[in-house]
């Protein structure tokens, strides 16, 4: 998970400060020294860290902090505000054309994930904003680049414009004409990358920019390259004049320093972040929400947005009525399991929950393979069996187990988990159930589920 190491160190530091109650100036300076070390270990550039700590120190040693009733909380508040400012303050949208299609030129080094994430961004624009995007294959050098774009385009049901090995500048021109003629309001140009920045690469990108005048030049950089990502952003901006950054593989970098350095170093905003391999795992970058995650405060707004994307109002009302009457079925159980899985990686979900709720939901306890087994078992049942699990006798269980390639004991475990979920929802209707972690535990993943859906631990 991004920023995992930084988040742990910062939380340890703030925990020690909170334990002191009243703080002296020396306490504050010691705490900020720890913050400084944590940022440097997270691969944030030295100059950025130095300026950040100077700004925080100036605010923290004031009498308003040291004389307050909760000085540690005041310091956390200041660090949160300064982290938000460091990453840009507010989210920044893509520029849009007043007339004709909006042209977004995707640039970056080879291996940063430019082709896939350009397609992901096009998918996000269609899902959230109702756009009609067109993907354009302008990378005519890398083997299979065109095929790769066609594959992801087909998976996202987004058309791809290509002209084989033609001149990339001509391809971009023709693609924009095609977009106008066929009603596409956004065009994403997948340009060529190199293993390193060279003159030939920049000359070609400058020619495309000069010819088609894109509304947005978006640089794709790999978060896992650390300070090299910042160096690439500076070089592309100097040569081309970028408008923003799409930071990829944020889920794979526990340090995350690139995200904290890019805006401060280049002045260019991070506009989007790739958070996983799936084609829907891309988000608008919100500096305030990211700062909140780093400091262990969670990110409930993003969590709610992800939940709403999977939310069916009619289905939810039906489910609510069933819960009130304690009439949950295995079909409902399957639907809720799929909605939870569709929200994304469980470790990312945990990162969005505030400290207390996150402790109740431990993603390390969830075995996604076992969740897949649960789904297979339910899908092997007849509609009657899903709606009335009490009819499941020994022969029916044997048939279901054979149908999904599992054992009868697995079927029994699922039924035991479902029975416990029913008991939990019954308690919830009486006002006894607390915590999102308990509900998620009921979906085959909590410590209280007698082993099913949990990773086995051997001593």
Write up this protein:
The chain is an alpha/beta fold. It folds into 3 domains: 4-86, SRP54, nucleotide-binding domain (Four Helix Bundle (Hemerythrin (Met), subunit A), Up-down Bundle); 102-297, 3-Layer(aba) Sandwich (Rossmann fold); 310-441, 434 Repressor (Amino-terminal Domain), CATH 1.10.260.30. 57% of the residues lie in helices and 8% in strands. It has 22 helices and 8 strands. The chain has helices at residues 4-20, 25-41, 46-60, 63-66, 71-86, 114-129, 145-156, 168-182, 199-212, 227-240, 257-266, 287-294, 300-309, 313-324, 330-342, 346-352, 355-360, 368-379, 383-387, 394-404, 408-429, 436-441; strands spanning 102-107, 133-137, 160-161, 186-190, 216-222, 244-248, 270-274, 282-284. It has an 8-stranded mixed β-sheet, with helices on both faces. Helix 10 links the parallel strand 5 (216-222) and strand 6 (244-248). Helix 15 (330-342) packs antiparallel against helix 18 (368-379). It is flat, with a radius of gyration of 26 Å. It starts with a helix and ends in an 18-residue tail after the last helix. Mean pLDDT is 76; it is low at 354-365 and 432-459.
Main attributes of the structure:
22 helices, 434 Repressor (Amino-terminal Domain), Four Helix Bundle (Hemerythrin (Met), subunit A), alpha/beta, disordered C terminus, Rossmann fold, 57% helix, 3 domains, 8-stranded mixed sheet, 459 residues
